[in-house]
Amino acid sequence: MNNCIFCQIVEGEVPAKKVFESEEILAFWDINPVAPIDILIIPKKHIGNLFDAKEEDLIALGYLLMAAKEVAISHGLLNSGFRLVINNGKDADQIIPHLHAHVLGGKNLGSKIIA
Fold it and tell me: What ranges do the domains of the chain cover?
């Protein structure tokens, strides 16, 4: 069994509250939200972080951004806006070593850096 919790979610070994899924991407609610809407978007292929991404991952990375747009729209953030955050590496507080983005919204997030 893969030790990556996000890979386990992709494989269906660990449950998650999914909100979007395609061939390349999975989006689900963060279990430790920092905003009323905190949805994680991950590539189904394991990519540790942006430094591990390769040219062959360009399509998955593009799909990740388009999924962020779809998730934001489907959760009512079209007019109010949202923040898209990718924590990359330990000093950025990337806790899970699988590339992921947070769609954050549902309140005024101000200028404080969160996620």
Answer: 5-105
Contact 22, 67 (CB under 8 A): yes
Catalytic residue ranges? 100
112/58: higher pLDDT? 58
Strands (E), the chain: 18-21, 25-29, 37-43, 83-85, 101-105
Whole-angstrom distance, CA of residue 115 vs CA of residue 104: 8
Please provide the CATH number assigned to the domain covering 5-105.
3.30.428.10
Question: For the whole model, what pTM was predicted?
Answer: 0.92
HSE at residue 7, side-chain half, CA atoms within 13 A, is: 10
